[in-house]
Design goal:
By secondary structure, the protein is of the alpha/beta class. It folds into two domains: 2-226 and 411-431, Glycogen Phosphorylase B (Rossmann fold), CATH 3.40.50.2000; 229-408, Glycogen Phosphorylase B (Rossmann fold). It has helices at 17-31, 46-50, 61-69, 78-82, 87-94, 106-113, 121-135, 151-158, 169-173, 180-191, 203-213, 255-266, 287-299, 317-321, 339-345, 359-366, 379-389, 391-408, 411-431, and strands at 2-8, 35-41, 139-142, 162-166, 197-200, 242-246, 275-279, 306-309, 326-328, 351-354, 369-372. The chain has a six-stranded parallel β-sheet with strand order 8-7-6-9-10-11, sandwiched between helices. It has a five-stranded parallel β-sheet with strand order 2-1-3-4-5, sandwiched between helices. Helix 12 (255-266) links the parallel strand 6 and strand 7 (275-279). The chain is globular and about 65 Å long.
Length: 432
Amino acid sequence: MRIAMITPGSGGQFYCENCRRDLDLVQALRRQGHDAVLLPMYLPVAEAAAAGEGPPVFYGALNVYLSQVMPGFRRLPASWRGWLDASALLDWVARRSGSVRAGGLGALTLSVLRGESGRQASELDRLVAWLRQECRPDVVHLSNALLLGLSGRIRAEVGVPVVCFLQDEDTWVEAMPAPWPARLWDAMAERAADVDLFLPVSRAYGAALAPRLRLASERLHAVWPGIDAGACRPAAPPAAPRLGYYARLAEALGLGILAEALLELRRRPAWRDLELRAAGGCTGDDRAFLKALRRRVERAGAASAVAIQEHFEGAGVASFMDGLSLLCVPVPGGEAFGMFALEALARGVPAVLPAAGGFVEVAEATGGVELYAPDDPGALAAALERVLADAALRRRLADAGRASVQRRFDLQTCTVPALLAAYAAAGARSRS
């Protein structure tokens, strides 16, 4: 089967769950003999670019932005606009603060959702032509519902089923000021008719988005993300109590909340040596928050106990997990799934997460996650202390989590078969 996976690249500046999910799936599909192609949008997928992936970047960030704000730009010859998709320029864009910030991009997001009637219609022309002439896929897979503006023309002109993951659209849309969230959800709901099957990454997230996208239950087929569990060696045991945070180093994902819990615990004699190690990269928008966080930690006399690695190294996750007592990414409202939990559990590191969103589903499926009430200010520190203080509990969580990830979340034996079944169901719907 020839699969075209269309994914919005993050430029490799931070741990992007969607990018990691899509790249891993493409590589796993190839290992099983399928002809899977990763098509980046906006910015490169850094790991794929480093591996010499062939397809160009579509909807290059600079072309998309200038087409939005400069009407005359769209009338320039394609050859004049093409140089803006050069790798060096897109790498520069990836390092700029606004390239992955939702707040000021409502009009642009809506324009892309409008597809052939949006200001980026020429980019859609180029993508559809490439799919028809160069790729000729059997199925096209969109990374999230913010790309639904592509689906109508792909389905009509390429003539193949279109499926769409659902993951973290709400994080992008709800970060925008009114009236953009309502307008964007309406646009996605209108475009949803052009998709054969939606694949939420958790049942919980599918249930949350179904009313917003006006989707009947039969149009949803949950597919959990997976990880190459067999390649994940057990993490080295901690020499001292140490918390880990592995996600984008952003205020919205709860890093500041975790730092405050650390400071609270360090005031107690039993945990005065507690440390925090945080990694996952950041954007320019996150640097002011990180600067303020470092000042807060210094004022509390804990600077030597907190290590924040701003530069993202995607290949360094295994070494990061070494020496952690547990992983905690306390996103206040939870996430659609939480790939970072699999990263930890696959290596025998238990997780502490708020009982919200897809985190509850991950906890139930793995047995390796300690949940706490997200709306209780003291609940996080209490949960961290409970797990840190009980070596037997940590071992039970670690053993259950690692075994469950190998059994239920392995890419080759679990995720790829579920994905292929979804493709078959989408094909049947497309033909009916």
